[in-house]
User: Fold this.
Amino acid sequence: MTHHELLRRITVGTPGDPGSALIRGTSITVIEVLGRLAAGETTEELLNRYPQLVEDDLHACAAYATEITLLSAMPPTEEAGYTPPTGTRLRLIAETLRFVRGVIAADGGSPLEGVLRIALIGSLATAKPDPRDIDLLITVGDGMELAPLASRARRLHEAAQTVHRGADVFLTNSEGGYIGRICRQIDCGHGVRINCRALHCGHRPFLYDDLHLVRLSARLIEQPPIILWPNLIVRVPVPNDLQTGLIAPLQQLLGNWK
Assistant:
């Protein structure tokens, strides 16, 4: 069954409200099914719970989630009609997709200059039902101006805070060495903040070089669990919600670029 055939199994009760989407001929909402998938229920358990559904209905929920996630992944200047998904994991996954999509299509459809790789690490890359935050590992060129990336990282953190979570962007150089995190401050420069704990505050604007506080293993840097860009590489089992909300949309986006 094609993607569009699957979408025909979903009926939206209220236009513009993804939460009102129902599975064909039932009162079962798509968000209810996705929430149970996010909680770790298997296909078999869902079909036992909802005997009126068939496996294609579950595939239809995944297809619908992909459509909604792609629509919600518009840059902030174009998101007047954006409706955040419900559920902490689903929201964090959707915000991760928005961030990645914004970075790799930042300049007229081209990636931010200097960004070499984007990877997902931490609890969101696992099946943990209540991840604490979004952790991204980004490789940047030595001379990259970090301000545009910092602006997007700040918006990502602010979005995560709406569900009482956080977001960190860890940086490595082209040689694979950890160099610090993106600074979340709007103004970042030498002498701007007296109490900054960075080793060399402001020497490279928007680089919070916390090497005395954070250690990332060489193995994690070399082989992160999920590389999102420029090539999609998955080294760990991926939960259904992460597959639906992040991996599948990126596969489609990167496939369209080939």
Confidence is low (pLDDT under 50) at residues 70-84. The chain has two domains: 3-72, 90-257.
